[in-house]
Each structure stands twice: as structure tokens, then as C-alpha cells.
Amino acid sequence: MTSTGAFRPHRVAVLAMDGLLPFELGIPHRIFGRPRDAHGRRLYEVVTCSVRPPGPVETDADFAVHVAHGPETLATADTVVVPASYELGPVYDEGRLTDELAAALAHVRPGTRLASICTGVYVLAAAGRLDGRPATTHWADAERFQRMFPKVRVDADVLFIDDGDVLTSAGVAAGIDLCLHMVRRDFGTAVANEVARRTVVPPHRDGGQAQYIHRPVPDPQLSTTTAARAWALGRLHEPIQLRDMAAQEAMSVRTFTRRFREEVGISPGQWLTQQRVERARHLLESTDLTMDQVAREAGFGTAQSMRQHLQAALGVTPTAYRRTFRTGGGGEHPGRVGALR
Asked: Which of 20, 139, 241, 305 has the fewest CB within 10 Å, making it most exposed?
């Protein structure tokens, strides 16, 4: 929407660079291309542009893609998404922009929202957009990225980080999580959930990158913790003890805790807190329940406890979060929502 109320879709420009991963290039088009308003109008307009004049851009596969827009398109964007590329050259090797890439990024207007998928974060960091700010990238590249850009506060444990006007995601499929989050932030939970449903992906994934770091694969013959998680999700409003969850799988607390970490990547306590935060978010967005009622329904007990947990997880108070999302998104950003731990 424009400030005068006339309808205008939010314009997303996806920057295609040589060596790009076709899967990542397609993520913004798939996620942002789905949402529509009650009148059937697209809420986003997605365009792909190159750092050069229109023409072919090489991918990491055995084909190139023809990009119809040049770098000047970046000047028209409300959001710019930078997917990963395997041919970043000096950006990846030395942490500096090429002249061509610097000239392209110079088109980006002040205040434009920036987002990266996987190692696309190198572009934002080399441009100086992440100095002093939190960011994430693929877990396998996080240590190298931190060494190259010591001013960036790298968090390799999360799937994505929302720092307001700059958002970064972990590797590959985490770009889906990031884009869904931006839809949720812009237009609310219902719109984002519908996009997730049509894309056949979860609207929110449990845990962070820790669950994808290489570790011994659990024996498929052994019991999992799936039933315990389903049991807990059905009674988040009640006190839940670790021994109660372990009992659902007929395991000792020690064995259950170990198996849970192997499967989810975080402890049962951390997982429960995440689920209660998610429940509180949903109730704050979709109901008129008081803060005390939301706190009880989400399992936090008191509004003060809920406030502390949401402040720690999201960086904002429940009141500020409700004000942001009950107005349809597009207001103040809801903190580092992707950095749930």
C-alpha cells in the first residue's frame, strides 16, 4: 500500500549473480509470488535483476538463466534479496565488493529492506551493511565468515535473523523460513500460513541450525520423541515436567533428553519455551485475549513471565508485538524473531 491508501504491491528485487543456486533463486519467487489480498490482488511484485545489463547469468548447474532486468531495477525495490552464489570472487575471498557489484548496489535506495540467503550474506557484509549487527549464514561457513568480518555478530545457531531493515538466513532451505517470516511480518500470520500450506512446508520450523550439523544418525529402530512432542503441544497451557514427556515414550529422563537433542537439536526445555512463544505470538496476533489470558493459554502462567520470555526471544514486549501484527504488518519490526532459542 502507498501512504495515500492506493494499492501498490510490495516490490521485491532478487539479485542474480553468476554461480547462483537455482533453488535459492526460486525461493523468493515461490514464497512472495503466492500472497493475495481479499480482492485477489498480488501483495508482492517479484522481479529478478542482474549486476549487468539484461542477459544470461550462469548458475552452478548445467544451464544459465536469462535475466530481463539490469541493476537499475534495484532502485525500484522495497526489498532486495541476495541469494547465494558460488562465484562471488573477491567478495568471498577478500571480503570486498567488485566494482560491478558496488555500482549495482549503489542503486539501492536508503531504507530499502535487505535480505540474504545462505552465503549471500557475504555481499551484505562486504557492502558494510552488517557492521555491528547480528547475522547468520550456513553453519559450515559461519566460522570463516566471522573471521573475515569481525565486526559482524555472527550467530550460527539460528535459521534466520531479523534485525529490522536487514535480515539474513542460514543455508539453502532456511531461505524459505526467512521469506515466510517476511510475509508474516508484512501481512500477518494468516497470509504466511496459507503460503506455507500451499507450498507444503511448515510455517515455522523447530530448533535452529544445530540440528543439521553432522552427528551420528540415531538408530531408526529405536523410539523417537515425536509422540512426546505431540503430547506436549496439546497441553502447552498446563505445567509440563521433563519426566512427563519422557514417560510418553517409556524412556528414562536421561535417555529421553539425549534422544530429544539428537532429533531436534535443542533441549526439551528450550523446545517447550519455543512452542510457548509461538503459541503466545499466535494468540497476540489473532485474538483479543488480555495479556494475562494469553500468558495462561501459552503456559507462561503470568503476564510478567510471558513478557520476559518474549523480550528474550523476540526483542519486543507482548504489547509491542500485538500492536505490530494486529495492524497488518509493516509497522515497527518485531525484533530478532528468527533468533529463537
From this structure: 241
- What backbone torsions phi and psi does residue 236 show, to the nearest 5 degrees? -60, -25
- How far apart (Å, rounded) are the C-alpha atoms in residues 334 and 96? 31
Under a CB-based contact definition with an 8 Å cutoff, are residues 287 and 322 in contact? no
Amino acid at 74: L
Q: CA triplet 25, 28, 30: central angle to 5 degrees?
A: 100
Q: What is the mean pLDDT of the chain?
A: 87
Look at strands 153-154 and 64-67 and give their pairing: unpaired
Q: Alpha-carbon distance 173 to 161, whole Å?
A: 14
Tell me if residue 141 falls in helix, strand or coil: helix
C-alpha cell at 201: 512446508
β-sheet bridge partners, residue 15: 49
Nearest one of 299, 276, 301, 297 to 288, comparing CA atoms: 297
Q: How many CA atoms lie within 13 A of 13 on its CB side?
A: 26
Against a cut of 0.85, is the pTM above it? no
Helices (H), 116-170: 121-126, 142-148
Q: Residue holding cell 503430547?
A: 231
First and final CA of the chain: distance in angstroms? 34
Instruction: Kindly report, residue by residue over 285-337, the tens digit of the pLDDT.
Output: 888 999 999 999 999 999 999 999 998 887 888 998 888 776 554 444 444 44
